[in-house]
Amino acid sequence: MTHLPLGQQLLDTCAALLLLLSFAMLSQRRVVTLVNLYAAQGAVLAAATLLLAWRTGEEHLYVSAALTLVLKVAFLPWLLHRLIRRLGVYWDTEPLLKVSGTMLAGLVIVVFAFSLAQPITRLASTDTRSAIGIAVSVVLLAFLMMITRRKAMSQVVGFLSMENGVFFGAMSASYGMPMVVELGVALDVLVAVLVLGVFFFQIRERFDSLDLHHLETLKERD
Amino acid sequence: MTTTFPSLLTGCVALLCGWVLVGLAGLLRPESVRFAGRTLFTLGAALGLGLAALAGASLLSGGIERLILPIGLPELPLHLRLDPLSSLFLFLLGASSFGISVFAGGYFREGEGTAPGLLCLQYHLFLASMGGVLLANDAYGFLVAWEVMALSSYFLVTTQHRLPEIRRAGFLYLLMAHVGALCLLLCFGVLQGGSWLFTFHAMRAAHLSPGWAAAAFLLALVGFGAKAGLVPLHVWLPDAHPAAPSPVSALMSGVMLKTAVYGMLRVGLDLLGRPVWWWGLAPLILGLFTIFYGVLFAAVQTDMKRLLAYSSVENIGIVFAGIGLTIVFAGSGMKAVAALALLATLYHCLNHAFMKSLLFLGTGSVLHATGERNLGRLGGLIHRMPWVAWLTLIGTLAIAGIPPLNGFVSEWLLLQSFLFAGRLPHAFVNLLIPMGMALLVLGAALAGYVMVKFYGIIFLGQPREASLARAHDCGWLERVGLLWLALGCLALGLFPLQVIRALGAVTAQLIGAVVPQASPHWWLLAPVPGRPVSYGPLVFLTATTAVVLLTVLVVRLTYRQRVRRGPAWDCGFGAVTARMQDTAEGFGQPIRHLFQPFFEIERQLPEPADREPRYRIAIRERIWRLLYEPISAAVDRLANTAARVQQGRISVYLLYSFATLLVLLAVALIS
Amino acid sequence: MELVLLLGFPVLGAALLGITGAHRRAPEINAALSLATFLASCALTVRVIRHGNLLLGDEQFFIDPFNVFLVALTAFVGLTTSLFSRPYMRVELDHGRLTSGRLRLYHSMYQLFMFTMLLALTTNNMGLMWVAMEGATLSTVLLVTLYRTPGSLEAGWKYFILCGVGIAQALFGTILLYVAAEKVLGAQGMTALLWTHLDAVKTQLEPTVLALAFVFLLIGYGTKVGLVPLHSWLPDAHAEGPTPISAVLSGLLLNVALYAVVRSKVLVEGSLHSRLPSMLLMGFGLVSVVLASLLLWRQRDIKRLFAYSSIEHMGIATFAFGMGGPIANFAALLHMTVHSLTKSSIFFTAGHAAQKTGTQVMEHIRGLITLSPTVGWGLMLGSLAILGLPPFGVFTSEFLILTTAMREQPWATPILLAALAVAFAAIFSKVQPMVFGETSGRRLPHAPALLPVFTHLAIVLLLGLYIPPYLAHWYRAAAHLIGGG
Amino acid sequence: MKAIDWITQVLEMAAALAAAPVFLGWVNQCRAWLQNRRAPSLWLPYRNLHKLFHKEAVIAQNASPLFRIAPYVVFGAMVLAAGIIPSMGTRLPLVVSADAIALVGLFAAARVFMTLAAMDVGTAFGTLGARREMMVGFLAEPALLMVIFVASLISSSTALPVITEHLVSGHLGLSPSLAFSAVAFILVLLAENARIPVDNPATHLELTMIHEAMVLEYSARHLALMEWAAQLKLFNYVCIGFALFLPWGVATGHIGPEGLLVAIPALAVKLAAAGVALSLIETVSAKMRVMRIPEFLGTAFLFAVLGLLVHVLLRT
C-alpha cells in the first residue's frame, strides 16, 4: 500500500502522536506539564475518534468523541490543575528509575507490545488495526510510569493515561465499545478522579505532602 | 451380606446418639457437679455397658451388618457397618469406658477449669465420636468422626487452659492430629481409585497399581501413626495425656490410641486387600524402635502421668510391631502365623485398654488425694489409700507382664508368633525376626523396671511430704470404676481361650484364617497345632496359690512365734528419714547412665560449698532438636523470606503486577 | 420483577441513606433494606430453581444457578453484616472514631457496594460487569478510608491504585474479548459482549486473542480476588477498614471477583484447546496458598491474620476451579460459600474482640473466653471451622478438593499439605491464647449480640453434616455450567 | 495323666526343696577349700534356716501387708519353678500349663515382689538394693529368654521338657548356637543368683550389695523363706542349665522307678560338678563395680542373640 487515504494517514499520525506523548509523560517530571501532556493526549484521542466517526459514520463514535473532549480535555485537566494549585505540588521528586533507564525500558516494552498486538491486528477487521500495537504500548508505558513515580499526583495521571490507552485500543480494534459500556466507563473514570480529589486532601491533611514514601508503613518486612 | 434388619448396628447407633444426648443434657445445668458429674456420667457408663454387650454379641455372631443414614455429602450418605473388627473395638470402647465413666462420675469436682456440664458434653462427644470412627463405612464419615474425636479430646485436654504448658500441649496435640488427618484424607483420596465413591466397599473393589497402593499404605501409616503415638510422631502424647483430667487421659490412652490401631488394620489389611510383605517392615521396625524408645523414656520420668504416657508409647510400639509382623506373614502367604500375630496384636489392644485405663485412674485418685503428680513428692500411700493401692497393683503387675495376668498372655502370644515365624522367603526378614524378638523381650523386661519404679515410689516406702498424711482413699464410684477395670485385667488373663475364640471372627475376616485350639481342655491355651506349646493360666494360678497357701499353713503350724513391730533396722543407721529413700530420678539413674545417647540431659549439680545444695536434672527428647526444631526454624526462615514480598512500597506492588502481566502475556503468546 | 427489586432496593437505599444516613434510625433502615434485598434474592432464586435460567432486560441480565447462588449468598451476608454493623458502628460512634457525617457516608456506600456487586453478578454484559466491578472498588475505597487514620488512608490509596490499574487491564481484556466476538457475531456491537452469546459461540473464537484476553482479565479480576502476587492491597484494606467492611470484602467481594474470573475462564477454555487457563488458575492458586500460609506465620494484627487466611482460601478455590471437573467445581463453589460465611463470622467476632479490648494486636488480646464467652467461643469455633476441621463445611470442600487433587494432580498435594499444615499452626497458635488463658480485663457486663456469627456458623456446620438435596442439586447445576475438566 | 507323673512332679519339688540348701552348702565348701579355708559344714544352710524359723520376727512399723506377703510369694514362685524344670523326669503335668516363657515370668514375679517388698519399708538400702536388682533383672531376664529361645528354635517348642527330650534324643551334636547361649547362660546364672563377680553373697558392706540389701529388713521366718527361696533359685537355674545343655540322664518318655533310679544319681553327680565349677568361677574372678554389671549382662544378652542369629544363619 504505497499511498493511503488521507483519513488513514491522519489516524496513523494521531496514533504516533499518542505514543510520543506517552514517552513524553514518561520522561516528564514537572507535574503541571504532566497534566498538560495528559490533556494533549486526550485531545489527540478525541481527534482520532472524530476522524473515525467521520470515516465510518458510526454516530455513537461522535458521542464518545464529545465525551472524551469534555471529560479528558476540559474537565479532568482543569480539576487536576486546580488540585495542583490547591495542594502546591509542582514537582515530582527524582523518579525511582533514572529517566534514561525508564526510556530504555519503554522502548523494550513498545517492541513487546507490537509483537503482542500481532494476533489481534490479524483478527481485527477495522482499518485502524495497525494502531492496536500503539494502544497496547500506551497502556504498558502508562503502567511503567506509575511504577516509577513517587508523587501521588503523577501516579494518578499515569492511571488516567492508561485508561486513555485502553480507550484508544477499543477505538482502533473495534470502533469503540457498546454505548452502555462506554458511558459506564466514562462515569467510572469521572467518579474515580473525584474520589481521588477527596483522597488528596485527606492524605495532605494527614501527612502534609503527597509524597508516596509516607504510604509505606503497612508491610510485613520489619 | 445380611439381608435381615441390622438390629445390633441400629442398637449401637442408638447408644452413640444416647451418648450425644447425655452430653447435651450436661448443658442444662452446666455448673452442677451433682447433676452433670454424678448422674450423667453414670448414665453414660450404663450406655457404655450396653454398647459392650451389643458389640460382644455381634462379635460372637461374627456377622456383618450395614446401615445407610441419609446425612453427609449429597452423593455420599453416611454408611455404617458393623463387622467383627469394628465390633471388637466397639467392645473395647464400651467395656473400658464403663469403668472410666463410673470413675469419672465420682471424679469431677468444682473449680477444675471448665464447668462440669461442658466437660460432660465434650467427654460424651468424645466417646460418641470414637464409636463413630469404628462404625463408619465411608471415608467422609470416618474422617468427620475422626476429627470430632480429636477436637473434643483437645477441649478436654485444655480443661485447665489457664496454664501455658497445658495450652502448649493442647496446641501440639491438635496440630499433630490435624496433620495426621490430612494424611489420611490423601490416603483415602488414593484409595478411592478414581471411582469417586468414598465408601469402603468401593475402596475394597478398587484396583490400585502397586505404587499407589504402597503410597496409600504409607500415608495411612503416617496418619494413624501420628494419632497412635508412633515414634517419631509421638511428641504430642507425653504432653497431652498428663495435661488432661485423669479419666480423659485414661480414655485417650486406653481407647483413642486403639482407634488409630483400628484404622491401621482397616486400611492395611481390609481396604488394601492382600498386602505386600515388605509393607510390613515399616510398622515392624518403627514399632520395635517405639517399644524401646518409649520404655526408656518412661523409666526416667519423674511425673507419674508422663511415665504412664511413655509406657503407652511403648505398648503402641508392641501393637504396631504385631501389625507389621502380621502383614509380613500375610504378605508371604503364611496365614496361620499371620493369624497368630494378629491375634496377639488384638489381644494386646484389649489388655492395654484395661491396664492403662486402670493405672491412669489410679494416678487420678492419687492426684485428687494429694494434689501431686511429681513422684518425688509421693510415697507410702498404700497405708492411706488401700483401695487404690491394691487395685493399682493388679494393673501394675499386669502391664509388667507378670503371669497369670493379662499382659503376659498377649506378650506370650506375640513371642510365639515370633518364634514360629519359621522360614520366611526373605533372608533380611529372617535375620530381623530374632532381633525383633530380642528388642520385644528387652522392652518387656524394662517395662517391669518402670512399673516397679512407678508403684514402689508412689505407694510404698515412707511419705516424702508431710502433706501426704492428709491423703484419703477414693469414693465408692471411683472404687467401682477401678474394680471393674481390675477385674477386666484378671478375666483377660485367666480366660484367654474364650477371648481368643471371640477374636477368631476378626482374624477370619482380615486374614482368612483362625488360630486353632490344639488342646481338648477348655482351660489350656495351645495355639500352635503340631507343636507342644501351651499355657494354662488357671492351673498356673491355682498351683501358685496352692503352694503359697501351703507354705503359709506349714509355717503357721510349725512355728508359733509372735511378730513384733519395731523401728526399721536399716543396718542400725538409725534416724531414717523419708528423704533417704531413693527418688524417682535415682531410680531412673541406671537407665539414664546406660542409654545416655538417647537422652538430652541437662544437670544442675551443687557446688561443694553450697549452703543448701540443689540437684536438678531435666531430660528432653533429642527428637526435638533432630527433627521438629529444624522444621519450625525452616518455616520461620521461609516466612521471613516471604515477608520481604510484602514490603509496603506501592511502586514495588505495581511492579509485581506489571511483571506478572508481561510474563503471562509472553506465556500466552508462546503457547 | 424480582431482579428489579433486587437491584432497586440497594440503589434506593444508597440514595435514601445518602440523605438521611446520619439519622438515629439509619442503621435500622440499612438493615431493613438489606433484608428486602435478601428477600428479593430469595424470590429470584426460587424462580430460577423453578423455571431455569432467565434472560431479562433485553438480554442485559442473565441469571443461572451459578450466579443466582452467589446472589443469594451475597444478599444474605449483606443482611447479616448490616445486622452486625448496627451495634458495632454505634459503639464506634460513641468511641468517637466516627462522626455522624461519616456514618452517613458509610451507610449509603454500603448499599451502593451491595448494588454494584449484585449488578456484577446478575449482568449478562461483560462490559457492564466491568463497570460494576470498578464501581465496587470505588465505593469500598471510600469505606476503607472511613476512619481517616494514616493507616486507613495508605490502605485506601494502595487499594485504589492497585485495583484501579488491575481493573484497567480487565477492561482491555474485555475489549479483546469484544474484538474476537465481533468477528463471529457480526459487527452489530450490542450482542458481542453478552455472555450468553459469547458462550454460544465460544468454540469459534480466535484462540490466541482469547488467550491474551484471558491474561488481561485474569490479571484484572485476579487482583481483586487477591491472587498472589497481585494481592498486596488485600491485607491492608482488610485491616484498616471498619470491621463490617472487612467482613464483606473477604466474604463477598472476593467471591464476586472470582466469579468474574471463572466466567471468563469458561469462555476461554471453550475456544482454547490447550489447558492454559486451567494451568494458570492452578498455578495462581498454589502460589497464593503457599505464600499466604507463610505470611500467616508472623502476623500480629488479628484482622491482617484473617485477611491472609482469605487469600489462602481463595487460592484453594482457584486451584479447584483450575482442576475443573464436576467434583472440583462443586467443591470450589461449596468452598466459596462456606468460606464467605465462616470468614465473615470470624471478622464479626474479631471486631467485637478488638472493640472490647481496644486493640487489634493479638498479643494484647487474651482470655476472651473469660471476658465474654460468646465472643470467645465464636472466635474459637470460627477459627476451627476456617482451619478445615469437621464437622464444619470448610472440611467438606477441602475433603473433596484434596481427594480430587490426589487423583488428578498428585504433584500438587504435598505442597497443599505442607501449606495447610503451616497455616493451621500459624492461625491456631495465635487464636488459642487469645481465646484461652489468663486475662487482665474483667468479665464484661453484657454479652454482645452475636446472632449473625452463630447463624453463619450454624449454616456452615449444617453444610458440613448435611447438604440439603435441592442445595446440592443447585451446586451441581452450577458446577455443570462451569463445566471444564 | 498317670499317677506316676504326679509322683514325679511332687518328687521334683520336694527334691528341690531338700537339695537346694545342700547345694549351696556344697558350693560354699568347695569355695572354702579352693581358698584354703576351713570349710563350713555341708548342713550349715539347714541349721541357719532352722534357727531363723525359730526366732521372733521383727517388722518395721511402717511395713505394709505387702511386706509380709512377699516372702511367701517369692518362695512359692521358686517352688513352683522347681516343679516346671525337668531336673529328673520330663513327664511333668504342670509343665503343660506353664512353659519356659511362663517360667521366666515366674522368676520375674518373684523379683518384682521382692523389690516391692524392699521398697516398702522405705529405707535407703532397701530402695538401693531394689533398684540394682531391677537393673540386673531387666538385662538378665531377656538374656535368659533368648538362651531358652535358641533351644526352643532347635526343638520348636517352648516347653522345657520337650526341649530336653529333643536334646536327649540328641541326633544333633553340640550346635554352635547352643555353645553361644551356654556362655550367655552362665553369665546370667551368676548375675541372677547374686554370685561373684556380680554380687558377693558373703559381703557385709552395704554399699556394694544387691540381694542382701533387699532382705535387710527381714528377720526370722520371713528371712528364712527369702533365703530358702534364694537357694531354690540357684538350684533352679542350675537345673535349667542341665535341661538345656546337659540333658543326659534325665528320665525321658514314660518313666517308671527304673528311670528315676538313673535320674537321681545323675542329677546328684551333675550338681556336684556344677558346684565345683561355680565355686571355681567365683574364686578366680573378682567382684566388679556396680555400674559395670550392665556391661557384663549386656555381653550375656549379646551372646544369646548371637546364638539366635547363628542358628537362623545356619538354618537358612
Structure description:
- The complex is a heterotetramer of chains A (222), B (671), C (485) and D (316).
- In chain A, helix 1 (6-27) packs parallel to helix 5.
- Chain A has helices spanning 6-27, 31-56, 59-87, 99-123, 132-148, 152-174, 179-207.
- Chain A is globular, with a radius of gyration of 18 Å.
- By secondary structure, chain A is mainly alpha-helical.
- Chain B has 671 residues and is mainly alpha-helical.
- Chain B has a domain at 627-670.
- In chain B, the strands form 2 sheets. Chain B has a two-stranded antiparallel sheet with strand order 1-2.
- With 485 residues, chain C is mainly α.
- Chain C contains 19 helices and 2 strands.
- In chain C, a hairpin with a 4-residue loop joins strand 1 (54-56) and strand 2 (61-63).
- In chain C, helix 2 runs antiparallel to helix 3 and helix 13 packs across helix 16 (393-408).
- The two termini of chain C are 36 Å apart.
- The model of chain C has no long low-confidence stretch (mean pLDDT 87).
- Chain D has helices at residues 3-34, 44-54, 65-84, 100-120, 124-155, 160-168, 176-192, 211-214, 220-245, 257-284, 293-315, and one strand at residues 57-60.
- Chain D is globular, with a radius of gyration of 19 Å.
- Chain D has one domain (3-315).
- Chains in contact: A-B, A-C, B-C, B-D.
- Chains B and D meet through helix 16, helix 17, helix 20, strand 3 and helix 21 of B and strand 1, helix 3, helix 4, helix 5 and helix 9 of D.
- Strand 3 of chain B pairs parallel with strand 1 (57-60) of chain D.
Helix-strand layout with pairing:
The complex is a heterotetramer of chains A (222), B (671), C (485) and D (316).
Chain A: H1 6-27, H2 31-56, H3 59-87, H4 99-123, H5 132-148, H6 152-174, H7 179-207
Chain C: H1 2-20, H2 26-51, E1 54-56, E2 61-63, H3 65-94, H4 100-122, H5 126-144, H6 150-185, H7 195-201, H8 207-225, H9 233-240, H10 243-271, H11 276-296, H12 302-323, H13 326-357, H14 368-371, H15 373-386, H16 393-408, H17 412-435, H18 451-465, H19 469-482
Antiparallel strand pairs in C: 1-2
Helix pairs in contact in C: 1-2, 1-4, 2-3, 2-4, 3-4, 3-10, 3-13, 3-19, 4-5, 4-10, 5-6, 5-10, 6-8, 6-9, 8-10, 9-10, 9-12, 10-12, 10-13, 11-12, 11-17, 12-13, 13-15, 13-16, 13-18, 13-19, 15-17, 15-18, 16-18
Chain D: H1 3-34, H2 44-54, E1 57-60, H3 65-84, H4 100-120, H5 124-155, H6 160-168, H7 176-192, H8 211-214, H9 220-245, H10 257-284, H11 293-315
Q: How many distinct folded domains of chain A?
A: 1
Distance between the termini of chain D: 38 Å
- Mean residue pLDDT of chain A: 83
The percent of residues in helical segments of chain D reads: over 70%
Average pLDDT value of chain D?
85
- Largest sheet entry of chain A: none
Q: Largest protein interface?
A: B-D, 85 and 85 residues
